[in-house]
Design brief:
About 60% of the residues lie in helices and about 0% in strands. The protein is mainly α.
Length: about 140
């Protein structure tokens, strides 16, 4: 069965990989980036990363219409001073930026739904990277 563009944009209600009401086309583009974050970071760090990203998104939404720093600044601040010194951190950060960019281009897409999905997947499945020695950026 071939899938037309019309059907590709239909919402998927009970799919584990597609948050409720999201279009599969966006989900298929976001899913690889969720996997990058999950595989780059240890489970507890990946959970924390998704939780801080959700907080940053909520902060950005609360301040909508007023002068603000934006999602990336809120996320960076929420992650703390120890964040960003490894290649795994850089990989997860860039994957999150790609997710956000894709979701912003799709009017019906909900970033919070994808962040909750990523957090749930890490909690349920664990991270792809079990124990990995962090490699400093520039090494």
């Amino acid at each position: 069965m071939t899938q037309t563009r019309e059907h590709a944009a239909d919402p998927v209600v009970d799919d584990q990989v597609v948050p409720g009401g999201e279009c599969p086309e966006v989900a298929s583009l976001v899913a690889p980036y969720l996997r990058i974050i999950r595989s780059a970071l240890p489970a507890t760090e990946a959970e924390r990363f998704f939780a801080r990203a959700l907080e940053a998104h909520e902060e950005e939404r609360r301040r909508a219409g007023s002068l603000q720093l934006g999602f990336s600044a809120y996320l960076w601040d929420g992650l703390g001073e120890s964040w960003g010194g490894t290649l795994a951190h850089t990989s997860a950060w860039e994957a999150m930026q790609a997710i956000r960019h894709l979701v912003r281009k799709a009017p019906r897409a909900d970033l919070a739904a994808y962040l909750r999905l990523g957090h749930r997947l890490v909690r349920e499945l664990g991270a792809g990277a079990q124990v990995r020695n962090p490699m400093p950026v520039g090494a």
